[in-house]
Amino acid sequence: MKLRYQYRIYPRKPQQTNLSRLFGCTRVVWNDALALVKSTPNGEKWPTSTELSKRCITQAKKTVERSWLSEVSSVPLQQSIIDLGSAFKNFFDSRKGKRKGKRVGFPRFKKRSATQSARFAKTAFSIKGSQVYLAKIGTVKTKWSRPLPNAPSSVTVIKDQQNHYYLSFVVEAEPTMDPAPNPAIGVDLGIKTFAFPSHGEPIQGPDYSKLNHKVKRAQSTLSRRQKGSKRRERARLRVAKLKAKIRSIRKDFLHKTTTQWVRDNQVLCFEDLNVSGMVKNRKLARAISEQGWRECRTMSEAKATMYGREVRVIDRWEPTSQYCSECGFPWGKLDLSVRQIKCLGCGTIHDRDSNAAKNIEHVGVGHTHDSEINGPGSTCKTGFPAGCVEPSNRIVDSQLCLDI
Fold first, then answer.
1. How far is Cα 323 from Cα 343, in angstroms, rounded to an integer?
2. With 70 as the cut, is the pLDDT of residue 386 above it?
3. I need a surface site. Which of 155, 286, 325, 396 has the fewest CB within 10 A?
4. pLDDT score at 233
5. Which residues lie closer than 8 Å to 268 by C-beta, 6 or more apart?
6. Residue ranges per domain, the chain?
């Protein structure tokens, strides 16, 4: 399997100038090739990657307007055409249903203000000891946070919006097949508390409130700056750094959490959440987006492949909060304000989210199914509403549901 390793680099001033020239050339080649495809008349066949490479690189270098393409290595320019071909393939595969996940849009033109990148193949870079040499760039200073397991097949130079430079290597590696201490774990993701595992303590996510306040003030300052001025650029850079800090905190937290889950459990069970629909609620959109539920699931799936584990996703309509995880007694729908409940079947007092996590695990490993709750052949997706069997003998408040 292929893995990606990313390292921070510190290019010198002349190297930064050469990298800026390289990013501009790869961006222009991409935009020229995309414009050429979009200008093809209806009914005619689109040009192939070979034709695009010939017209946008080889012939373009001979013109006065694009003669500066010769100043950089030709390998990243060729890779830009290859990447455009991959973007078109992903677009059509997504339209035909051959590609899983969210639908991929049509390729768009690249902007100078966005994150810049250029990819080098094996023939255009080399690693000698701790030094990385890039064609027509030179040897760049690299911060090696961890060693590479094998020789990389390609490397991508990245410049983000806060003017930080990175090297991203693609490496072929073998998965680790060590046995896990625990057979399975169910995870119920939340907002106030990031995750409730089926066994273990609840996991609290990072607090972004102070950083969000700084971002709000920095964006307010940015909106008052005159476009094109140096002060606006400084204000933009401050906003970019604050947002990058939030992303780094979230990414570090998710990496540590998912790595612990994957190392300790053979099977990870998640609930298929409709995140795209949930973020349409404007009151909860920021809180849901900050948790990174989708990123957590993606990391878990990738690391499960690395460690020989399995990730199972149960149906989003599974009524995990509507029945007891101990005896299976169905109590029906509960108001969101009810966080604890006493089961009428076995008398166990459950925390709402912890009970849901245990049910997610049971369904994920195949111990229970919604047919056992709703009955054989039932089309009901969420069960029946909760109601008091003996209203005079039962009290329901926001904290506890008890029989008196």
1. 8
2. no
3. 286
4. 92
5. 184, 185, 187, 261, 262, 300, 304, 309, 310, 311, 312
6. 2-172, 182-314, 340-403
Cα–chain-centroid distance for residue 195?
A: 17
User: Is 353 an annotated catalytic residue?
Assistant: yes
Can you give the pLDDT at residue 352? 86
Quote the CA–CA distance of 284 and 278 in Å, as a whole number. 8
* pLDDT at position 367: 65
Per-residue pLDDT, averaged over 215-238, amounts to 95
In this structure, the chain runs to a length of 404
Residue range 267-271: mean pLDDT, rounded: 93
Percent of the chain as helix, strand, coil, to the nearest 5: 40, 20, 40
N- to C-terminal Cα distance for the chain?
59
Whether residue 182 contacts residue 199, with contact meaning beta carbons closer than 8 Å, is answered with: yes
Tokens of 382: 């969420």
271 is catalytic: yes
Q: What is the pLDDT of residue 340?
A: 86
To the query of whether residue 315 is one of the catalytic residues in this protein, the response is no
pLDDT at 380 over 50: no
Determine the pLDDT at residue 368.
59
Record the tokens describing residue 223, joined without a space.
């909106």
Q: What residues contact 144, with CB distance under 8 A and at least 6 apart?
A: 7, 130
Q: Which residues pair with 128 in a beta bridge?
A: 131
Catalytic residue among 32, 290, 318, 353: 353
Nearest to 33 by CA among 105, 121, 108, 104: 108
